[in-house]
Each structure stands twice: as C-alpha cells, then as structure tokens.
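New to this. Help decode the following:
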Amino acid sequence: MATTATVETLSNADEAAEHIARQSFADAHVGTVGLELESHTVELTAPHRRVTWRRLHDVADTVPDLPGSSAITFEPGGAVELSGPPRADVWSAISSMRADHEILTSTYRDAGIALASLGTDPLRAPERVNPGARYAAMASHFGAAGYGETALQMMTCTASLQVNLQSGTPRQWRDRFALAQRIGPTMAALSASSPMLAGRRTGRQNTRQWIWEKLDPRRCAPVEIGSDPSESWARYALRAPVMLVRNKDGAEAVVTHVPFESWVDGSVQLAGRAPTTEDLDYHLTTLFPPVRPRRWLELRYLDAAPDWWWPALAFTVVAALDHPQVADIAAEAVEPLGDAWEVAARVGLADPALHAAGRRLVSAASAVAPPELAADMAFLVERVEQGRCPADDFIDNVTEYGVEQAFSGATQ
C-alpha cells in the first residue's frame, strides 16, 4: 500500500538542511540505470511552425503500449520526452528505450510529425506551447531576474539525453558525485549536437550547454562538493532562490530574490506563511545543476542525439561511473578538465585536451561494452578518433539538404 509523506512546517535552516540531506543519496549498489530522451517535434508540412499542444496530445493518445513502459511527457516548447523506468543494467535500459523510441517516432511520423533528437531547435524561434502553471511561473521568475530570453531558449529550444545512476554505497557517494560532475565537460563535447538555434549558426558546437551557462548560476551552476556531499547539496539548495510557491490556482512566481534559507529562517515571508517540507521538496525540482542528487544521480549534461549516437553515448557515461576500470581511466583522463564547460560548449572536440580525454574515455568504454552494443561503440570510437561529434554530422546535412530537411530527419 502506498504511503503519503507527512507534510511538516520548517522552522529554521538546520531543519531544512537535514531534510535535504536525508533524501540526497540512497545506499544502493551500482548497476541500475534509467534513461530519459527528449526529441523536438516537427510538423513535416510546416517545419517552421511549432506543433500545437492539442495535436501533441492527440497523437500521444494513439501511441500503442510501449514495451519498455516509458512515460510520455512534453516540454514547454513541445518537445516530447520518454522517461524509462529503472533497469537492472545499462543494456536493458538502452534496449528498452530504443524500442520505445522507435514506436514513438513511427507513431508521430505517421501523423505527419517528425521527432528530431538534437540538443537545440535549429530552426524555430523560442515559443512556449505548454500551458502548465510551472512553466509560466518559471518564465516570470527568470524574466524578473534578468534571464528571460535565455530561460525561454532553455525551456523551449533544448533537448537532452538524461542518464540516472545509483548513488552507490555511502563510502562512494562523494567520489561518484564528484566524478559524475568532472566528466561533464568531456561528455558535453562528445555529445554536442546543437550548433544552430532559431535558424542560425551560433558559433558553438554545444549551444544547449552555452544556454545553461548563461542562466542563473545560483540555480544552474555545478555544485561545489565538499567532504560531505549531502551537506554540499543542502547548502547549494538553501542558497538558491525560490522560483515559485504552489497554490490552489497552480503556482505564483517569486519575482524577487529570495533564497530558500531566507524564507525558512523568517527573514522573508512568501504566501504569508512559513515553508513546509512539501515546499522544499518542490524547490529541489527547480534546481538544475549538471548533476543533481535525487537519492540517485541525475546526469543532465548530454545533448539529445540521433539514433546512431545516443546508445553509445549513454553506455560511455554509465561505464565511466559504474565500471571500476573505466572509472579509473575516466578520472585520470578528465582530471584537468572538470571546469572546462565553456570550452566544451564553444569548440567541443576541436579542443586538443577534450579530444584526448574523449578518445581515452570512449576507447575504455568500448572495451567493456556488451556484444549488442559493439556496432554502436565502434561507430562512436571512429567518429571521436576523427574529432567529430553529432553537431558535425548535422551541419553536413544542413549544407547538403537545408536546415528544414536536416531538422526533420535528425532522428534517423
């Protein structure tokens, strides 16, 4: 029988920090993997126009039962997300997501809508089609803080491949959190698939990462990890500004700078009351560092990528965390690159250090890949040896076919 968590009023920052710490990491052996894949939706007869909210849902209602039991949701700009349940191992997670994504892609294409797995929308201007109160409040909050245009790009023009991994045993928590974050720039370079935005070249290989870097660092920057990762995450969360307060009408945006710790210690009142544990739990969902603890580790820095790229990228990042030998190689390879987010976004594998680290990482991962992924990993190794990422393939397609056709065919 399901149980409902008790909602308690928080009276000080220490209580809030303890609440966060209790749910930051879970004692669990590594191996379980969850994947989430986002894809832009493109009207084949009118690729410059966003698919309407009603049409997205009408087509979703016709999707047959997915064999991998992925959940279907929609992002603010109309991108569709498949969220797979946790699987016992990485191959099970990849094969299940691949099967579900093939069915979803086929169903939408039969309805005249292509799915484009790229880190950014290369064609259309930012526009929100999701009417949800969360996203309206998010837009208001970011706008008041001076991030309005960038936030709209983030919400409506980006798509990612998210990998969810176990925290490990308590003795592993800090090292796994730190390594997951340190490999981020290298993986951002390897997965870069977003050289265009709103019809223009941006001069960057990973425009999605560039967008995230321009957003509020108090909410989106990497976590500074100290000796106790739970305390580090709690400190980050309490210093981050409150985005919204939910109410019976949906949500009210907070348009002044109010760190959660200021609300909980009584320095500032929101909605005329003290915060509750429910408010704090929701606040944690509005924080977007590259790696976010949620009892497991959410790795949020991979661009969405086409079908011939994403399985190998997913396996590589999982191997870098979960396979001891690959983890050792990864830690050594990326050691000087843990803060190289800007370089990764701008030039990707054209940076010699990122290229060298990427080659070592994919080579080590390829050596331990299951037979079912041999072809995928061989493709990735070859491309990385050439210094290429999905962005390079996409630009080649734009040059040959034009951006509209390249966009509508970006999953295949």
